[in-house]
Specification:
There is one protein chain. By secondary structure, this protein is an all-alpha fold. The protein has a single domain (about 1-305), classed as ABC transporter involved in vitamin B12 uptake, BtuC (Orthogonal Bundle), CATH 1.10.3470. It is about 75% helix and about 0% strand. The protein has a two-stranded antiparallel sheet. The longest helix is centred in the last third of the chain and has 38 residues, at about 270-305. It starts with a helix and ends with a helix.
Length: about 300
């Protein structure tokens, strides 16, 4: 029982880690509260299931799903940057529009199961593991998450990635350097939502079906993962932000699975997600406030000692 729960936590946590890495770009780097996530996650799932069930190989289908997510991020970015709509409203508008678009892509069906088509978790590679399907799933999740993490880390070290960080820290400074900070915001939203759509496409193949409601509460889950990871490793410089949010996603997923294992009805899960997120926010703000006060106190003592 415990082992099964642990294996489920690892699989789901690694999948949600992709969403967390996307939200890490918008929330932590750009300081942009992007609500598009709740729509781009099922968007990736809808595109993947329709293409795979339609006969396309799962690899190009998953890549196209990522591209669909990038268009969702591009839409939010254009609404915010070009049309001067606030970041929250821009995300809400795109997310709301995606509710209809996702249903249209899915052929007006809220649930589409995969049949016997090869998927990321049912192919010649997974056949080598025989009956150890869970092991195969974990191996695939680990490979995908590690590859995406490495690519993202390398991207953030490039000139473009550094400018992305600079826009989040001080957009006016970027403008003074002759750079258009708005374009970098759009770039960040495109990359972030492509990762979220990738997670949606992979999650639908892992579950074996597409669910149009799968994106509900996804932004809460991702934000909680980012905050947990960054709070835990705030004082550990050797741990990169992408690594921190991956661990945060696994921890948050563990909390949710423990709640389910305790026998809490599934329809209360979203409520517990919100409550747990609120607790995390309160604890994070308290720790941050205490840290600032402690630092201020130490600076005052140093100043008094200098006088």
């Amino acid at each position: 029982m415990v082992i099964n729960i642990l294996l489920t936590i690892i699989q789901q946590g690694l999948c949600y880690a992709l969403v967390a890495m996307g939200v890490y770009i918008t929330y932590k780097i750009l300081d942009f509260p992007d609500l598009t996530v709740d729509g781009s996650f099922p968007l990736g799932a809808a595109v993947a299931v329709r293409l795979i069930v339609g006969g396309m190989h799962f690899i190009p289908a998953t890549i196209i799903a990522m591209f669909a997510g990038s268009i969702a991020g591009l839409t939010t970015g254009i609404l915010h940057v070009k049309f001067k709509i606030s970041n929250l409203l821009a995300g809400i508008l795109t997310m709301t529009g995606l509710l209809s678009i996702n249903l249209a892509i899915a052929g007006k069906r809220t649930l589409i199961p995969y049949r016997q088509e090869p998927t990321m978790f049912s192919n010649h590679f997974t056949d080598f593991f025989g009956s150890n399907g869970v092991v195969a799933n974990i191996v695939i999740f680990v490979i995908i998450v590690v590859v995406i993490k490495i690519i993202l880390d390398l991207f953030l070290k490039t000139k473009m990635g550094l400018m992305l960080r600079a826009v989040g820290n001080n957009e006016q400074m970027c403008t003074s350097l002759g750079r258009d900070g708005g374009n970098y915001k759009i770039l960040g939203l495109v990359v972030a939502n492509s990762l979220v759509a990738l997670a949606g496409a992979i999650y639908s193949q892992y579950q074996g079906y597409f669910d149009n409601n799968s994106g509900v509460g996804m932004v809460v889950l991702a934000l909680a993962s980012v905050i947990i990871g960054c709070a835990m490793f705030r004082k550990v410089p050797v741990i990169k932000g992408t690594t921190a949010v991956i661990i945060g996603a696994i921890i948050y997923t563990a909390c949710l699975n423990i709640i389910i294992a305790l026998g809490v009805p599934s329809f209360y899960l979203k409520l517990f997600m919100a409550v747990l997120f609120a607790i995390i926010l309160v604890l994070n703000n308290t720790l941050l406030k205490n840290g600032i006060q402690r630092k201020s106190k130490n600076n005052n003592q140093i100043n008094k000692g200098g006088v």
